[in-house]
Amino acid sequence: MKSLCYHDRRKRLLLVVLSLSLLNSFWIINFYISILSISSSQDVYVKPLTRLIYNLSFLNDTQDFRLLVNLSNFSFVMNNKRCDSISELFMVVFVHSAPKHYHNRQTIRQTWGQETNLVNDPFRVVFLIGKAQDQSVQLALEEENHIHRDIIQGNFIDSYRNLTYKYVMGLKWVTYFCRHVKYVFKTDDDIFVNIFQLVKYLKDSFGTTPTGGLVVCYLIKKPFVKRSQRSKWHVSFTEYPWKYYPPYCSGWAVLMSPDVIFSLYIQSSRVPYFWVDDVHVSGTLVKKLGVSHVDLTDTMTINRADIARWLGSNVSNLPPFFGHPDVDRETIYALWTKTLLYYNIIETHW
Ligand SMILES: *[C@@H]1O[C@H](CO)[C@@H](O)[C@H](O)[C@H]1NC(C)=O
Ligand SMILES: *[C@@H]1O[C@H](CO)[C@@H](O)[C@H](O)[C@H]1NC(C)=O
Ligand SMILES: *[C@@H]1O[C@H](CO)[C@@H](O)[C@H](O)[C@H]1NC(C)=O
Ligand SMILES: *[C@@H]1O[C@H](CO)[C@@H](O)[C@H](O)[C@H]1NC(C)=O
Ligand SMILES: *[C@@H]1O[C@H](CO)[C@@H](O)[C@H](O)[C@H]1NC(C)=O
Ligand SMILES: *[C@@H]1O[C@H](CO)[C@@H](O)[C@H](O)[C@H]1NC(C)=O
């Protein structure tokens, strides 16, 4: 991926430079991206599968709305129908967050998650949160939501043993409130995303509208079940009797087509709850659908050293697709500032 983009860059840069005289800086990024997409549309990385068959008649069933896996009294404490106002929505991003992570959410809102980043391919970002056990945290969340209108909160307690409820709430929310979207991206609140590269990758690989059956992620291929009592993720034999999990996606970057979301949501109330959310949703449920993962690790690996090297290098090198997981907020700001510089590089040289 990296070398591929690098080779064509001189040609692309020339194209962009020729077009620049009419543009102000606000348009540069989007324009540059659309040029990149056209000039490399022949680079198809993966053959998409066919669309899954699903039946959405449950949407007229009030009982389904109250159901979340095995919770029969589910409700949204906060809901923002962010997708409603826009008919040609390219992507929706649901970000797993925790009640107290205000600063992480602000970082995303101020960097890659700004909806004005992409003018030609509109996207929306929502934050998924469970119920805060501390009343003052809940009040702060309500204030935050009053300002930003981007929090989706469920009435289950926010805790790591309840993370699968959060993931399924994301599936449910997209199914109920954002069905017309082209791509769904699931991530965490401590991740840097090169949103420009992400859109380009999706269009180049799967088109402006995916055929269907897409689950694209950094795949964990033969995951063994952690049994050590010291691990936060340790699982007992009663909870999960087998030695290995099915292959599943690292939770910090999962791309899916909407048909996968609907089908996963339908399965979510038919398969017993298992609390390791990534394993359950992107492993067990995906396997049940018979969908194969597309592994991003083969196309683009990222690691701490690469990220650090890029940050230290001059601005003419292609920014990383994602930051590594658990990146701190200062690094996210630094990565973002430099990413903007990269996409504006023509302007600096002008
Ligand atoms: C969808 O499911 C409902 C209820 O199970 C059923 O009545 C209906 O015929 C199904 N529709 C299709 C197209 O299969
Ligand atoms: C729900 O009901 C309405 C009106 O009865 C109907 O037009 C719509 O197609 C139904 N939706 C689904 C998903 O079955
Ligand atoms: C369901 O939840 C609502 C609040 O979300 C609560 O008022 C009600 O008592 C609950 N009902 C049951 C049966 O748990
Ligand atoms: C998960 O959420 C449910 C519903 O709010 C709650 O009853 C349960 O105690 C929570 N579990 C944990 C481990 O927090
Ligand atoms: C849901 O399933 C989990 C796992 O089996 C269980 O621990 C929990 O008590 C169940 N919750 C309800 C409300 O049935
Ligand atoms: C940036 O670095 C590359 C090699 O990594 C070098 O060829 C290029 O001249 C440098 N550009 C600037 C503006 O320093």
TrEMBL record:
Predominant localisation class: Golgi
Principal EC category: transferase
InterPro entries: Glyco_trans_31
Domain of life (superkingdom): Eukaryota
Topology in the lipid bilayer: Single-pass type II membrane protein
Presence of keyword Protein transport: no
Membrane-crossing residue ranges in chain numbering: 12-33
Cellular localisation: Golgi apparatus membrane
Enzyme Commission designation: 2.4.1.-
Keywords recorded for this protein, A-Z: Glycosyltransferase, Golgi apparatus, Membrane, Signal-anchor, Transferase, Transmembrane, Transmembrane helix
UniProt family annotation: Belongs to the glycosyltransferase 31 family.
Name of the protein in its database record: Hexosyltransferase
Name of the gene encoding the protein in the UniProt record: LOC106473722
